[in-house]
């Protein structure tokens, strides 16, 4: 699990290929799912109905999904948001661990 301070502005969730480097560009489709964090109030949402993509470039083994964090002023518990990998295409890649969690550490 990735921990990011609320004031950091963003967190980078790594997406790594299990087997070496990409033989061709690999497109990863993802969205964000609230766990205990609230979309818009705590982080900038990426809807699973209109997911975004990131590319692992040919010859690379990883990319990073950026989660934009909202620095609110509420004293609160640490909050979690899920990074959901919905699919991969290209380069013969297959899905592995499909969900990551970013824990937003409160600073108020
Ligand atoms: Ca918050
Ligand atoms: Ca807060």
Question: Secondary-structure blueprint of this entry?
Answer:
Blueprint: E1 2-5, E2 10-16, E3 26-34, E4 52-56, E5 62-68, E6 79-89, E7 99-105
Parallel strand pairs: 1-7
Antiparallel strand pairs: 2-5, 3-4, 3-6, 6-7
Bound molecules: calcium ion (2 copies).
Note down, in words, how this protein is organized:
Helix content is 0%, strand content 46%. It is an all-beta fold and 108 residues long. The two termini are 22 Å apart. The strands form two sheets. Strands 1-7-6-3-4 form a five-stranded mixed β-sheet, with no helix packed on it. Strands 2-5 form a two-stranded antiparallel sheet. The protein has strands at 2-5, 10-16, 26-34, 52-56, 62-68, 79-89, 99-105. It binds calcium ion (2 copies). The site of one calcium ion (CA) has 6 residues, from loops.
Could you state the CATH homologous superfamily? Answer: CalX-beta domain
Give the N-terminus to C-terminus distance in angstroms. Answer: 22 Å
Give the topology string: H per helix, E per strand: EEEEEEE
- What is the strand content? over 45%
Q: Give me the Rg, rounded.
A: 15 Å
CATH uppermost class: Mainly Beta
Biggest sheet architecture: 5 strands, mixed
Helix count equals: 0
Unreliable spans are none
Helix/strand-derived category reads mainly beta
Helix content: under 10%
Shape call:
elongated
Q: If strands are numbered along the chain, what order do they take across the biggest sheet?
A: 1-7-6-3-4
Please count the beta strands (DSSP E, at least 2 residues each).
Answer: 7
């Amino acid at each position: 699990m990735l921990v990011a301070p609320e004031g950091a502005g963003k967190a980078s969730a790594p997406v790594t290929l299990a087997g070496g480097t990409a033989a061709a560009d690999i497109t990863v489709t993802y969205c964000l799912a609230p766990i205990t964090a609230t979309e818009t109030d705590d982080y900038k949402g990426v809807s699973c109905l209109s997911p975004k993509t990131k590319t692992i470039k040919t010859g690379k083994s990883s990319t990073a999904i950026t989660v934009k964090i909202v620095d609110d002023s509420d004293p609160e518990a640490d909050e979690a948001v899920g990074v959901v990998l919905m699919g991969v295409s290209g380069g013969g890649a297959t899905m592995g661990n499909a969900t990551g969690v970013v824990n937003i550490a409160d600073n108020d």
